[in-house]
Write a structure and sequence with these properties.
Its cofactor is a divalent metal cation. The two termini are 37 Å apart. The chain is an alpha/beta fold and 220 residues long. It has one domain (5-164): Ribonuclease E inhibitor RraA/RraA-like (Glucose Oxidase, domain 1, 3-Layer(bba) Sandwich), CATH 3.50.30.40. It has helices spanning 5-12, 16-22, 56-64, 85-93, 108-111, 168-190, 195-198, 201-209, and strands spanning 27-28, 34-35, 42-50, 70-74, 98-105, 118-123, 135-136, 140-142, 145-147, 152-156, 159-163.
Length: 220
């Protein structure tokens, strides 16, 4: 699913926390895979790569993926660098949306200041080989979640999530409602209110003490 300006703008109005609050089944990539670059915000379709101890498939992905795509690498969570400065620079030239590696990445002196979002599980100077074809555009596992070709990869300072294209419109709507509710609560707190003023805390606790089902929710 291509990411148009309208979809990107809608994601910029929320964040991954709101997406997860809106739907607790949202696929969340393990927090060990974290940003290594100056840029952290990702919003693009996954171009998937599977490889082990060899970066040739990642190179092929960078050279094959369409502009805006996010290279998602199933490297088997192994501490071997499957990319570095050259891949990040090449991805910028090709206008890709980011690189996410369940494995290692290197060349942090460049990557840490890079405008391309780069995420990895490890930082390591040891690179893999370049003699195995690997696999492109197949279902992969990255950070403990399944990522299919074309799934939307969304990331910010909080972390990475993966969403099926068919669900993104309704999820963004729900996430925006979450953010609007949060803003109302923040306004109340900033004006001197308490969490009990903002939420049904007393009623919720009382219901749970009675063994009844209850939901903590904002008042009003």
């Amino acid at each position: 699913m291509p990411v148009n300006d309208e979809l990107l703008e809608r994601f910029l109005a929320v964040d991954t926390t709101a997406l997860c609050d809106a739907d607790r089944t949202t696929r969340v990539v393990h927090s060990a895979i974290r940003a290594r670059s100056a840029a952290t915000r990702i919003c693009g379709p996954a171009f998937t790569v599977r490889c082990r101890e060899d970066f040739l498939a990642v190179l092929r992905g960078v050279e094959t993926a369409e502009p805006g795509a996010v290279i998602v690498v199933d490297g088997g969570a192994r501490e071997t660098a499957l990319g570095g400065e050259m891949f990040a620079r090449a991805a910028l030239v090709r206008k890709l949306g980011g690189i996410v590696v369940d494995g290692g990445y290197r060349d942090m002196s460049y990557v840490s200041t890079c405008a391309l979002p780069v995420y990895s599980r490890f930082v390591t100077p040891r690179a893999g080989t370049s003699v195995q074809l690997g696999e492109l555009q197949v279902p992969v596992t990255c950070g403990g979640v399944t990522v299919n070709p074309g799934d939307l990869v969304l990331a910010d300072d909080e972390g990475l999530v993966v969403v099926a294209p068919a669900r993104i419109e309704s999820l963004l709507d729900a996430a925006l409602a979450v953010k609007e509710a949060e803003h109302r609560v923040i306004g109340l707190l900033d004006s001197g209110g308490t969490l009990s003023d903002a939420f049904n805390v007393a009623d919720h606790v009382a219901a749970l003490e009675r063994g009844e089902q209850s939901v903590l929710r904002a008042k009003g």
